[in-house]
Batch of 2 targets.
Target 1
Amino acid sequence: MERYAQAAPAKVNLALDILGRRRDGYHEMRMVMQTVSLWDTVTLEEGGEGFTLSVRGMDLPPGKTLEQRAAEAFFTAIGQPAPPLRAALEKRTPAYAGLGGGSADVAALLRLLREGYAPDMPREALEAVGGQIGSDMPFCVRGGTALAEGRGDLLTDLPPLPDCRFVLCKPDFGLPTGPMFARLRLDGSLPRPDVEGMVSALRRGDLEGAASRVGNVFESVLEPPERREIEGIKETLLRHGALAAAMSGSGPAVFGLFPPEAETNRALAELRARYTQVFEAEPVGRLL
């Protein structure tokens, strides 16, 4: 196998709703997800001993990595022994931010493995391998604009988000996904985003209609200090011309959705004066 490289684009949740807890312990989700042009880079080549991963830009957690688990699941799925592989990851997307950076990295690795070892493997089969590792990995394998249901792994392609721009900002604290789910009170009191309305707006190419339905139920369970920080970032984005602003995933990264003609420099400058992780991005289409 030659040395291959893949971009690993981040995602934002344009709308995120949680319908309840499933019997399998996961939550029933309904989300509109969008790939954006903020990405890590994953490279892969044969060699070394077993599976090795080097990372530039963050520290690896102890134990077997998600990337190694994904590689093992891939070769099991295609019925071949795994060769020795060297993977390398250059991080740019903030980790533990609600932007799907870790899942995007695994998804990029899976696309590389398909390219090198099973080019005829159907996309759905590769997504199923990703789904063994994490709920949002099938979307990260596919990319583009999609409605995600079930535990996040049941995907329906949607028309591309109309031309627009994003400003992304991660505040200087983390919000681990597990504890954020534990905060939820699934008693019908959560303020729910209009996912169906957003889907309809996307199908008619209505950017403002989609923007008016941006929302995330996790914002309703933020603690007061977290809420003040998140709301402050959203206010900055809206004041400088964003059509909508919301937290992505379980947070704490916030995105602002701007029309294509909008000037984003003032929003970027004000946020960069307060935060170290601020980015501009555009929508990205299907990856596979």
Target 2
Amino acid sequence: MSTLIRDVYEHELDSILALNNAAGPAILALDAARLRHFFDTADYFRVAENDGNVAGFLVGFGSGSAHDSSNFAWFGERHPSFFYIDRIVVASRRRGGGVGRAFYADVQSFTEARWPLLTCEVLIEHDSDPARLFHGAFGFQEEGQHVMPENGVRASMLVKKMCSYPWIRERYGDRLPDVPWLLQPRRPRGNPAERATGT
């Protein structure tokens, strides 16, 4: 069974909201307005598709965005340029099947051409050992811990240096090659079938 990582469609937001809020205490709950804000403003908002079904999603923001997360602000106080993974959620029936690794390979490819650091957090008060091990195995290191003022939850703040970034910036500057895997994520609207027929 192959996993396709692709940009999210607007008609999928209700399903993504349900997926997020069924993920358990390790993922902060969302409401529809907040998720819609992510859809409108995120630099990266993609889903994993298995057999035509959404198996997970990842949302992230570059350091130049106006994202209002306290964890994003924590990284902003320490680094002038970074990409922040706000959340990754994988459906329970797909966990352990490589969906998370597929997401992280995709978001790293997106990040390394644009920012020197990939950042995220793991909530450490909710049986987070599997998540911390996953991130450690993927090359993240803890830079510190942060207690989120909005809910009092403590997070392990993780960073990963993008080793390719200096060479890419030296070689291409702000003018990246026009190749599909480097394209900025699009903001697809509506159902793909409707867009194909122009309805």
